[in-house]
Recover the amino acids of this structure.
């Protein structure tokens, strides 16, 4: 094995962690993959013999790449993030089969980041998001983060503290019991199939929030949609009741969700937040372009 192959092998040992950092930073699976690839390219152009802590070096580099991407995204955005955006934004979901979890999968589930948290992270300033993700989620010391955001350690701590307050104040809690989540989601699907409006309302929190991204205009409907309130969301569920029979349960960002796949063609992915026996948040991605980039068919059937 030559030096390049050995370096590539060492990099692969860290790919999972780098992908996790990038996904939390960007909320986009394709962009996260691009950030990881850019990190590899930077490593391949560096004398690895001078790197004493490869894992730390790679985490720092992927963080810097993601920060640049976030800043570029912010500069391209014509309108600032406002309440409408936060009510309709749907991050890229991570989909996997809902099966009996082995010990290794249990660890992955415990480390999953929910869609609700990704929505909140999207509202943070790029430097705040980087600091929060690297320190609070991956235990990177502030002294290592400070050079990336071009601040002193004290100022970097303040960034993390500010981000932490916003996350804690806006990210809804969820029931960690997958069996309980499954019970609620299955009951919701059954009520939708049967057209039982009252049962749907009973399964939804009175202030439930639904956000949906359909991509380009679909039959004259808006690309993004936000609804709030049990009755409004239940009415929406009844409109799509004919598709409920094609729904299959899956893990969506570590929680029980739904993939709508008639004849094996994925039309939408729905993530939910369940608390106290009711659905409090619903996130629906039905943009065909984004679904194709995520390759949900592969993820559900693997």
């Amino acid at each position: 094995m030559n030096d390049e192959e050995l370096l590539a092998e060492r990099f692969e040992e860290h790919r999972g962690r780098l992908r996790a950092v990038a996904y939390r930073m960007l909320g986009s699976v394709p962009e996260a993959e691009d950030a990881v690839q850019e990190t590899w390219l930077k490593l391949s152009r560096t004398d690895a013999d001078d790197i004493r802590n490869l894992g730390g070096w790679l985490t720092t580099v992927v963080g810097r790449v993601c920060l640049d991407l976030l800043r570029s995204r912010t500069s391209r955005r014509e309108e600032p993030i406002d309440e409408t955006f936060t009510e309709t934004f749907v991050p890229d979901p991570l989909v996997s089969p809902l099966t009996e979890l082995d010990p290794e999968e249990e660890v992955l589930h415990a480390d999953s980041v929910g869609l609700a948290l990704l929505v909140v992270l999207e509202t943070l300033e790029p430097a705040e998001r980087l600091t929060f993700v690297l320190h609070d989620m991956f235990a990177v010391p502030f002294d290592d983060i400070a050079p990336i955001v071009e601040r002193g350690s004290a100022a970097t701590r303040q960034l993390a503290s500010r981000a932490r307050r916003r996350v804690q104040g806006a990210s809804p809690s969820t029931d960690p019991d997958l069996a309980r989540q499954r019970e609620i989601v299955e009951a919701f699907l059954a009520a939708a199939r049967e057209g039982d409006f009252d049962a749907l309302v009973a399964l939804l929190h009175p202030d439930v929030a639904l956000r949906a991204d359909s991509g380009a205009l679909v039959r004259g409907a808006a690309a993004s949609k936000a609804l709030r309130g049990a009755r409004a969301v239940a009415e929406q569920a009844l409109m799509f009741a004919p598709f409920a029979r094609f729904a299959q349960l899956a893990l969506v960002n570590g929680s029980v969700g739904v993939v709508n796949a008639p004849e094996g063609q994925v039309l939408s992915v729905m993530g939910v937040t369940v608390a106290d026996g009711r659905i409090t948040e619903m996130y629906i991605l039905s943009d065909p372009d984004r679904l194709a980039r995520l390759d949900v068919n592969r993820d559900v059937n693997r």
Q: What stands out?
A: The chain is about 55% helix and 15% strand.
